[in-house]
Design goal:
Length: about 210
């Protein structure tokens, strides 16, 4: 992690400065508790490294599970001295407003679990998505397939159990032709297993 320029939160061990990592979420949410434990372990591991050039300190803030609370907490984090990054451990209901507040303050926000179409423009902000999502994931997958894998034939397996949510992403291939090479779609009904479609795909070696 590279800290932001500015004064550290306090002197660290020896001559090292200390920068703060903010963790934002709902304390009533078990996922937030898990993220906090992981963050404390990561900060502790960093601070034990004798080669480190700075120390880290973890700060936490509760958003109450609301967008308003998330915006307030993120703004307070951004105004604090020595803050390097805000880890947004909230949900779709809270994280988009936190990202907006961090963007306005030019503070990096790490999104660890939210998956909302409101994050589609995250690449135009100071936010980093730590995992592929339904909203930000498809373009990255398409780029990887087209530029790295370059398959001659690709099969999209469409699980119809959540067709209302997934159809727009399938249409990226079937309607808008964003995937190079030959493409095919295998639909799997909500009450059907994947064994049959897996067998059909396996019959065509080299299919992705």
């Amino acid at each position: 992690m590279v800290p932001v320029p500015g004064r550290p939160v306090r002197p660290g061990s020896g001559d090292r400065p200390t920068y703060a990592v903010g963790l934002l979420g709902d304390r009533a949410d078990g996922a937030f508790t898990a993220q906090e434990r992981g963050a404390r372990l990561a900060v502790d591991e960093h601070n034990r490294d004798g080669r480190r050039e700075f120390d880290l300190a973890l700060r936490t803030a509760a958003d109450g599970g609301t967008a308003e609370g998330s915006a307030r907490a993120a703004a307070a984090f951004a105004a604090a001295e020595g803050l390097a990054v805000v880890v947004c451990a909230g949900t779709n209901a809270t994280v988009p407003t936190a990202v907006q507040a961090c963007t306005r303050a030019r503070i990096t926000a790490l999104v660890v679990r939210a998956d909302s179409s409101l994050l589609d423009s995250a690449n135009l902000t100071t936010a980093l998505l730590l995992r592929p999502t339904r909203s930000a994931g498809p373009p990255a997958i398409l780029r990887h397939l087209n530029r790295v894998v370059k398959p001659a034939r690709t099969v999209v397996v469409h699980d119809l159990s959540d067709a209302a949510e997934t159809t727009p992403y399938v249409r990226i291939v079937t309607v808008y032709g964003k995937l190079d090479g030959v493409t095919a779609v295998e639909e799997v009904a909500a009450d059907e297993g994947f064994a049959a479609v897996a067998g059909r795909v396996a019959e065509r070696p080299g299919t992705r």
